[in-house]
Amino acid sequence: METEKATNFIESIIIDDLESGKIDSVVMRFPPEPNGRLHIGHAKAATFNFLTAQKFGGKCNLRFDDTNPVKEDADFCEQIERDIRWLGFEPAGVYYASDYFEYMRDCAVLLIKKGLAYVDESTPDDIRAMRGTLTEPGKNSPYRDRPIKESLALFDKMQSGEVPDGGMVLRAKIDMASPNMNMRDPVIYRVLHATHHRTGDKWCVYPMYDFAHPIEDAVEGVTHSCCTMEFEDHRPLYDWVIDNCDIEHKPHQYEFARLNMTDTVMSKRYLKQLVDSGAVDGWDDPRMPTLSGLRRRGVPAHAIVAFCTEVGLAKAVGVVNGAQFDDCVRDELNATAKRYMVVPDPIEVEIVNVADDFEDAVEVTEGGEYVVPHPTFIDPEKRETPVTTRKIRLSKHVYIDRADFMIEPPKGYHRLIPGGLARLKNSFIVRCVGYDCDNSGKVTKIRVEKTDEVKAKGVIQWVDKATAVDIKLRKLSAIVPNGEGDFTERINHDSLKVTTAKAEAAVAELKVGEAVQFFRIGYFARDEKFRDAFNTVVELKSSYKA
């Protein structure tokens, strides 16, 4: 295989491991816990793992870390798998931590028999107090030297259902004086009388993440187990479990900085709080940074992968400007989105010098000259589509946006004014010959004449009055903006604003989730739950400065 060029420090390690013969092939994994929906931060990890495996001709598994039945369920598993496939990734295999429960139990028994684990009957508070502090060593549990035979019997009792939740735990016997708090006899099994979404009531003891995860990686033959920096201090425990459970395959853990974005919540706990409190209408609310929320908002999967690739991988923790994400979305839609005319604040315009039954078929271009997927998309085959057009009806009565007409315009205003010229987009030029106002002075109707002029400074969008459809525009902003203080006090309860608009007839046929450009307004997509409404995907202009 031709030598690949590394683009980050983990790829450099992989190249060295392949060239030295340490590994024959690359095996990665993406291991979310199914206790919520995936968000944009998970997308970065998934993109890295799947694309890295692909780059080196290896494979990447999707594995659900379902070791806590209290918080996890099958629906989250289904939604996560859907999100991964929506991004364009095909897992080599779909696995669950629960697939290995019996093997993990056997590993725990082996540790007890080796004198490297013991059953502790101390209360959770007592165990916490025994751990010590960052500057003081921990204290041995009174049960630390419990005979092996006794611990084996009590572990059996824990499994049989005779022990209440919190009554006993199994702890690894490592070093209570270790400077690494994670090595001070960590709990590796606890009692939980809860129904598991896959195994039902078969088990009432469940492994802790730090014990389960290295075993899962080893069983699946993972070569490079990549996680975020908060697990760096857990790596010695990861290695300890592998070494002492006599597992032949020995994966290695590597850490990288998690994704942090401005005005974006990157915590499933906080996202769940938004859902449970009713601040949003579900995990897929288009204001949410979840993949299901972004999909409902109309964000293309290609754009998410492009953004995650552009951000790259590093050890240093930083904050990415959310405008950079918007730019990736805008770049994708600028090349792929169809264009439609929509009038947010309609005012009627009558073309006075055409017949009452006047009707014209105006041809408009639907999109760009070609459509090419972002180069990071996993299918490298280039696709092109020719220019497409559609025809829209133009009659004697149309709507234009109120902002496109001013009686007393400021300097530099190039749209319609009394006596002035403007082109109806994709059609002829008109001259304003009059207008009506109500008692408050608000313009209620504009009268224009079709002219033979060939040049006008202003071009204005319009929709045919007789065939226009009524739609709603859902303007979205950050649900939890940046700031100090309590999370709940920063929730923006005005993050969704709904207005009405008139749209050309073809807008009624748009599919749910298909992102399109409404001329001069922004990119929008039909909402999945409110079919007459369109969510803002992204604004037309960028505010991002690299």
Question: Which helices and strands, and how do they pair?
Answer:
Layout: H1 9-20, E1 27-30, H2 40-55, E2 59-64, H3 74-86, E3 94-96, H4 101-113, E4 117-120, H5 124-130, H6 148-160, E5 169-172, E6 187-191, E7 205-207, H7 209-219, E8 224-228, H8 235-244, E9 252-256, H9 268-277, H10 291-297, H11 301-311, H12 322-336, E10 339-340, E11 342-343, E12 346-351, E13 359-365, E14 389-395, E15 397-401, E16 421-424, E17 429-437, E18 443-450, E19 459-460, E20 463-464, E21 469-476, E22 496-503, E23 515-518, E24 522-526, E25 533-538
Parallel strand pairs: 1-2, 2-3, 8-9, 10-23, 12-18, 16-19, 21-25
Antiparallel strand pairs: 4-5, 5-6, 6-7, 11-22, 12-15, 13-14, 15-20, 16-17, 17-18, 21-22, 23-24, 24-25
Number of helices: 12
Query: Which residues sit in consecutive blocks of at least 5 with pLDDT less than 50?
Result: 368-383
With strands numbered from the N-terminus, the spatial order across the biggest sheet is: 10-23-24-25-21-22-11
Q: Structural class, from helix and strand content? A: alpha/beta
**What is the CA–CA distance across the termini?**
36 Å
Overall pLDDT level: 93
Strand content: 15-25%
Helix share, percent: 25-40%
Question: What's the quaternary structure here?
Answer: single chain
Main beta-sheet strand count, sense and barrel state:
7 strands, mixed
Radius of gyration: 30 Å
Shape: elongated
Q: Count of DSSP E strands?
A: 25
